[in-house]
Amino acid sequence: MSNPVLNEKFIDRTQVGAEPLTMNGVLQKTFVLFAIMVFSAAFLWMKGLEGHTDLVMACTTAGAIIGFIIALVICFTKKMFLTPVYAVAEGLFVGGLSFVMESVYPGIVQTAVLGTMMTVIGMLVLYSTKIIKCNEKFVSVIILATFAIAGIYLVQIIGSFFGLSIPGIFGSGTAGLVFSGIVICVAALNLILDFHFIETAVQTYVPKEYEWYFGFSLMVTIVWVYIEILRLLSKFNSRD
Predict the structure, then answer these.
(1) Longest C-alpha distance within the chain, in Å?
(2) What is the pLDDT of residues 183-210, one digit of tens each?
(3) Could you tell me the CA-to-CA distances from 136 to 139, 181, 193, 200 in Å, in that order?
(4) How distant is the alpha carbon of residue 167 from its chain centre?
């Protein structure tokens, strides 16, 4: 999930370096991290096609746990050298989850990837044309909504250990579809925050080494969008 790993306080406390980061640099680092993630996901997908389903499930779980832990470490310590490791773990999680979903609902992954790409492009257009203005109020609302969703997921996860579940919103009924739609909207609007903070970092001459951190942040948000679209599509398919 994303993504107040970037915020104005992060920008303010960053020391100015001799060589500042650039937009192209951030995009290049993002591309490298995505390439690593895709390679990791493709590796696990191929293992699934070979019939190693136990390995797929184990790696998916391990990827989710390790990726979450590494993400926290990166967020709180700014250890940028860990970003490729995170990309590998995230690739295992995304690859395994996608393989399982595709096995149950053929064609769902392709639709989710296309939906994610359209969402990213759409948010970039809305931000660049200033149709959506990322002011202080907008930032506060989206970060609050993001934490609220994280809280709901946390309650659901804890409850699942005791055989409990939040009624309605995690099912395939109307409430579940509406909830997923809201989560996708919040995840997509987090992309606006990412674009804003990256642009601010360029303007305030944040050191070049932080290109990896901003690339990591952008990848976290895009993966979140993809997973939520995948979840929504699975709910729709389960209603058939």
Answers:
(1) 58
(2) 999 999 999 999 999 999 999 888 998 9
(3) 5, 24, 10, 13
(4) 25
